[in-house]
Specification:
By secondary structure, the protein is an alpha/beta fold. Helices cover about 50% and strands about 10% of the residues. The protein has a 7-stranded mixed β-sheet, with helices on both faces. Helix 13 links the parallel strand 3 and strand 4. Helix 2 packs across helix 7. The longest helix is centred in the first third of the chain and has 30 residues. It is globular. It starts with 6 loop residues before the first strand and ends with a strand.
Length: about 400
């Protein structure tokens, strides 16, 4: 499979590909998606007018942290309701002063925004920058472990900053985000599709296109070829916006028949790493909108790990990835690999071969010059693939 921007490598230990291909199409999402779509458009229109937001990347980044907090509010409400039904106490994640209903959208008895209690202008901006973000960033130190929602809150707000300079614009955006609903699976499904569209637009907007967005029909085709099963661990060491992990979750969700299956998908199936802060935040948010409460995405440079340090317990049954092309890594990073090269895509390919479990399978997008170039690193890597993997 080849295209203008790259091709795909399929490798598996041993050969066992499902027979045939079937047509993959997107299902219709019904009328309510038009309302969600209009809210997203109105948010972008406001951010376009703000001096602190200059590109589609900024629009998506700033929408993300607000969506994240709105999602947390809905998650807390759901968990409180579940606890009440079971007659158990519920201890909220967020302290009262920092809950969405307190600072972002305080409501009056009629259920509408209480304008007397709602912050706006400089007061709102100063609260967000000086109190809210430092409080949320502190969750990373207070969390019990890296695979908790508390840790993800801390990581997200330790990496991202509020760029909306006008507190009045921020108030307008908050009011629009407050209209969105995360309570039903249908609503989450529709919002996840819209968020994917924002990521695609961000990629199309310019300098970092391929870094954030891999065409979803290509991802779905790769997943169908590998045909992952519940119980297998799926890994993307250059996960970007987490498109491969989200689509794999959609694929495996159709196989889930028990609560144990669902628990396995939530906590023990999807693993990712991402180096860049914005992509990390967007990847976490994308997985959350797709239904993974505490995504196992780590903010780190995958290539900083020495291949000799990867043990059997660190290997995965399924690997799906579209590593960045054309990047350059420093000499000290290259020392982590037997085949020395500055090309990030070639370093990632070595990492994925090493991280693949015996009997596992991988689908990796590669540079379209990989099969033809005569450079030493490329020749050595092709030999490695042919000798150590069943290559397709």
């Amino acid at each position: 499979m080849r295209g203008n921007s790259g091709g795909a490598v399929w490798c598996r230990h041993p050969l066992d590909l499902p027979g045939g291909w079937s047509r993959i199409t997107d299902s219709s999402l019904g009328f309510t998606i038009a309302m969600f779509e209009q809210v997203f458009k109105n948010i972008d229109d406001i951010l376009h007018k703000d001096a602190g937001c200059t590109s589609e990347l900024d629009y998506t980044e700033q929408s993300s942290w607000l969506l994240f907090l709105k999602y947390l509010d809905a998650l807390e409400a759901d968990k409180a309701s579940e606890a009440a039904l079971e007659g158990k106490p519920y201890r909220a994640i967020i302290d009262p002063a920092y809950r969405w209903e307190t600072w972002a959208a305080p409501k009056g008895p009629d259920g509408k925004l209480d304008h007397n209690a709602a912050l706006t202008g400089d007061d709102l901006r100063d609260f967000v920058n000086g109190k809210l973000f430092p409080y949320l960033a502190g969750f990373k130190q207070r969390a019990s472990g890296p695979n908790t929602i508390e840790y993800k809150i801390g990581e997200v707000f330790g990496e991202i900053k509020n760029k909306i300079q006008s507190g009045y614009n921020l108030r307008d955006v908050i009011d629009l985000v407050d209209e969105l609903r995360f309570r039903s699976q249908t609503e989450k499904h529709e919002l996840s599709h819209l968020y994917e569209a924002k990521i695609k637009n961000m990629g199309n907007a310019g300098r970092n296109g391929g870094e954030y967005y891999t065409p979803r029909p290509l991802i779905r085709a790769m997943i169908r070829v590998l045909d992952p099963k519940i119980g297998e661990r799926i890994y993307d060491g250059a996960c970007g916006a987490a498109g491969f992990l989200c689509e794999a979750f959609e694929y495996l969700s159709q196989q889930a028949t028990t609560t144990d299956d669902l628990a396995t998908l939530q906590t023990r199936t999807f693993y990712g790493r991402e180096k860049k802060s914005l992509a990390y935040v967007i990847g976490v948010m994308n997985m959350i909108l797709h239904g993974i409460e505490a995504p196992n995405i780590v903010h780190t440079n995958t290539l900083g790990e020495n291949l000799n340090d990867i043990q059997d317990r660190d290997r995965y049954e399924v690997i799906l990835a579209n590593p960045p092309f054309g990047g350059k890594e420093r000499k000290e990073v290259q020392q982590n690999f037997p085949i020395k090269t500055g090309e990030t895509a070639f370093l990632f390919l070595q990492h994925f071969i090493k991280a693949l479990q015996a009997g596992g399978r991988a689908a990796i997008v590669i540079k379209n010059t990989f099969l033809s170039t005569t450079a030493n690193a490329s020749t050595s890597l092709r030999r490695l693939l042919l000798e150590s993997c069943n290559l397709h």
